[in-house]
């Protein structure tokens, strides 16, 4: 009886999906004037709808049937949940690859939400979605270029490599050379993206809402809303080009002390459109390729420090943040103006790629987020609560919010030890974090529902940066927390100076600054002592 009821639920879900999404598909087709595109939609969308419906029904049925009658908190249900998570993640992975486009973008988002979704989903999506995206044929690439610029690649460029050097969810990149001899990277949008984007969004929206209906704890409707808001901007490559220029301009104006150390490729506007972006070709080591970085004479810990500082400046001072800093979007090269030191070392320059996804933080959000990170670094429990509440976590979930940001339980977050936030990378640490994520999953879902979407994107950015840092130094570095503490504290002081005009207020700010310098100096001394202790332990 139970099995029959569950199967009926899955069957009804499939029928409902096909009916509702079919209306969305029809609407998309109705607005298409190109007969060839209409025919393509008529043949492709029903197949995609069927895949969506079957996958959603299969996942719902698997969870309901496999967990039926198992006692919450038992060893058996933990084991079964792990197995169902794995099966469901693989089903979702297959669906993303077969449908492509927005589905791969969704999979990439899931893969970057470490400990916010079941770890099985994160691991499977992260291993596959960044490096195994579908590739458009050379004929399709030529079709896009001719439609956008009026000529084929062989006319527009003196050289154009038909094989892409990289392919992502929205586009792929080809190496070319302009007629004046400049080596460039040409980013070409996949042809199917604009064909099916509207219908795809409707189907993904329905699936997430339907799963939430059956499993209220799985509330990731915010993720679909975020993709719906950000995807049109990411599909307009002119916006991406402008973002890259604005990013560098912010560093020159607001963070001149590190402006030379951060770079973005020059855009060739005469060879760029909304679906085609021609940029300066960049040579460099990928951010997680430690051996290549070392061969360039650059120390990985210096790169980790630079990445932390660059993104801290963006989040806490610029309020204009690159929100997709995974390893494929970050390169490192020696600073062009630098020379090798006596020890043969070079200073690093960080190259930011893929500027499609940026978020603006208003003054209130940026200031409170900076104040929150300052409080986290200095283990100030009162300020952590105050600023978490201001950002929307609430009086009851502020400790959980702090734990998600730092990947630490509350007792470690407020530990006064200078290295209280450092994650050593041990299996026991990771197991503890996964246990907390599983134990507090309903509360995590509620927290994600409450927080503003811009803060949710900061969480995703934070996870990306943590993964990059761990690949560079094998464990979270105290030095990077020192940098975050310094930049966030400076941002808070600058915000106070903007808001207060009386002499007494200026005096208070000056005293705050002196206190900050003292605390940072003490933190630096502690850092040196910890490094010395580690060096001595290696010697033994």
UniProtKB/TrEMBL annotation:
Name of one Pfam family that matches: ABC1
Entry-linked InterPro entries: ABC1_dom, ADCK1_dom, Kinase-like_dom_sf, Mito_struct-func_regulator
TM stretches of this protein: none
Domain named ABC1 atypical kinase-like: residues: 129-387
SUPFAM superfamilies: Protein kinase-like (PK-like)
Extent of the signal sequence: 1-25
Keywords, comma-separated and alphabetical: Signal
Family designation: Belongs to the protein kinase superfamily. ADCK protein kinase family.
The name this protein goes by in its record: ABC1 atypical kinase-like domain-containing protein
Taxonomic lineage of the native organism: Eukaryota, Viridiplantae, Streptophyta, Embryophyta, Tracheophyta
């Amino acid at each position: 009886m139970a099995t029959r009821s569950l199967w009926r639920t899955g069957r009804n879900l499939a029928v409902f999906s096909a009916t509702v999404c079919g209306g969305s598909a029809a609407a998309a087709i109705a607005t298409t004037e190109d007969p060839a595109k209409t025919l393509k939609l008529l043949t492709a969308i029903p197949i995609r709808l069927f895949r969506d419906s079957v996958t959603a029904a299969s996942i719902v049925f698997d969870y309901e049937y496999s967990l039926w009658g198992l006692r919450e908190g038992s060893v058996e249900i933990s084991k079964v949940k792990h197995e169902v998570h794995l099966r469901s993640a693989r089903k979702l992975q297959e669906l993303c690859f077969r449908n492509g486009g927005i589905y791969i973008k969704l999979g990439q988002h899931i893969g970057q939400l470490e400990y916010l979704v079941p770890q099985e989903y994160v691991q499977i999506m992260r291993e596959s979605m960044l490096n195994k995206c579908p590739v458009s044929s050379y004929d399709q690439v030529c079709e896009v270029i001719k439609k956008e610029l009026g000529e084929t690649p062989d006319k527009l460029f003196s050289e154009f490599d038909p094989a892409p050097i990289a392919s992502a969810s929205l586009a792929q990149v080809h190496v070319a050379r302009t007629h004046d001899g400049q080596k460039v990277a040409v980013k070409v949008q996949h042809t199917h993206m604009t064909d099916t984007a509207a219908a795809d969004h409707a189907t993904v929206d329905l699936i997430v809402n339907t799963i939430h209906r059956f499993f209220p704890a799985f509330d990731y409707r915010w993720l679909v809303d975020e993709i719906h808001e950000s995807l049109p901007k990411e599909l307009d490559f002119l916006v991406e080009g402008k973002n890259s220029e604005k990013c560098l301009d912010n560093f020159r104006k607001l963070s001149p002390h590190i402006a030379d150390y951060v770079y973005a490729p020059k855009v060739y506007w005469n060879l760029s459109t909304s679906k085609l972006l021609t940029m300066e070709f960049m040579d460099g080591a990928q951010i997680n390729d430690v051996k290549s970085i070392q061969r360039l004479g650059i120390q990985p810990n210096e790169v980790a420090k630079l990445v932390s500082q660059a993104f801290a400046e963006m989040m806490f001072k610029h309020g204009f943040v690159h929100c997709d800093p995974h390893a494929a979007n970050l390169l490192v090269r020696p600073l062009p103006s630098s020379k090798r030191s006596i020890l043969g070392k070079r200073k690093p320059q960080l190259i930011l790629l893929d500027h499609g996804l940026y978020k603006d933080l208003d003054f209130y959000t940026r200031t409170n987020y900076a104040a929150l990170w300052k409080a986290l670094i200095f283990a100030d429990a009162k300020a952590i609560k105050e600023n978490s509440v201001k950002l929307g976590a609430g009086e009851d979930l502020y400790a959980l919010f702090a734990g998600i940001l730092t990947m630490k339980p509350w007792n470690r977050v407020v530990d006064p030890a200078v290295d209280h936030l450092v994650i050593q990378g041990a299996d026991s640490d990771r197991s503890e974090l996964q246990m907390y994520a599983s134990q507090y999953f309903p509360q995590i879902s509620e927290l994600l529902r409450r927080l503003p979407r811009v803060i949710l994107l900061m969480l995703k950015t934070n996870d990306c940066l943590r993964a990059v840092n761990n690949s560079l130094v094998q464990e979270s570095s105290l030095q990077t927390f020192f940098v975050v503490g310094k930049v966030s504290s400076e941002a808070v002081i600058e915000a106070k100076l903007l808001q207060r005009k009386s002499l007494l207020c200026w005096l208070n700010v000056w005293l705050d600054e002196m206190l900050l310098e003292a605390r940072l100096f003490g933190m630096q001394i502690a850092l040196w002592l910890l490094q010395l202790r580690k060096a001595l332990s290696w010697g033994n």
